Amino acid sequence: MTSSGPAITEGTAIVRARAFVRACGIDAVPVDLAKYLAGANAEMRVSMRLPPDEAGNTMFVDGRHLITVNGNDSPERQRFTVLHEVAHIALELPSLHADTIPSDVLYSYVRRPPEEVICDTFAAECLLPHEFIRKDLKDATADFAFVDQIAAKYQASLACAASRVATNAAFACAYVLSQDGHVRFATYSTSMRESRFWISLGVAVPIASVTGQCLKANRSKAVGVVPAHLWTSADAFADVDVNEDVRVTRAWSQALTLISLDSGDIVDDRRAKSTFERDDDELLLKELDGNLPWPGGKRRK
Question: How far apart, in Å, are the Cα atoms of 236 and each of 107, 262, 277, 296?
């Protein structure tokens, strides 16, 4: 499969995924994979013969795409694999699964090809559709207990659910995925982006952070409050504390971290100074506003 069109950005993938969700008539969660398969002119089969390092693949047979997933994987991973392959079809992006690339490249965040990252974005949007996840956020709390509930409701992995919660939250939060002790992926709520709270990719996990201490002590989870400057170099956050809630996945040498700010006033003050502020963004923020509990980090005295 090859692409003859212009390069697809993450934003383009999101827009096209949301259009695909509507076109496939998704009206309930967990989403019905059969509707997505029909929309992509594809069918799915489960194979117990795929090697452990292969999550799935796609072939074009008799005028249809045949998506094969590894039956030894968890149901959540199988669902994501199907939608990842559907993304390749819908976006007309080349798939590298048939090439001699090991799964630790395809399914880790260390050396992943950009096409695979874009297809992950599309798949996550389809698995936890924007219109549904936004409604669920009215009951949000600032911990992985809430993310666990979302993951179960949408039949998604904890990592995928955490990323979608952070992206769609109306409050100030960020989700960070670390692998092998280094930050590999981060996503932010709208207010967090506009407050310019950025986390550098590729850097080592801060040793003094809750995540760093959790990894050092070989713990599977931890919570705590730390200075924001451990995670961001933005001067505006030099005297602010943030919450961390951490889960560690040893099988993939990954740590999942939720970072949150306590006071909406802090974010609002900085948003007013942001060079990214636009009228249409403000309208969107007003539409998403709600009194959501997100306890924790405070401005330090």
Answer: 35, 15, 16, 18
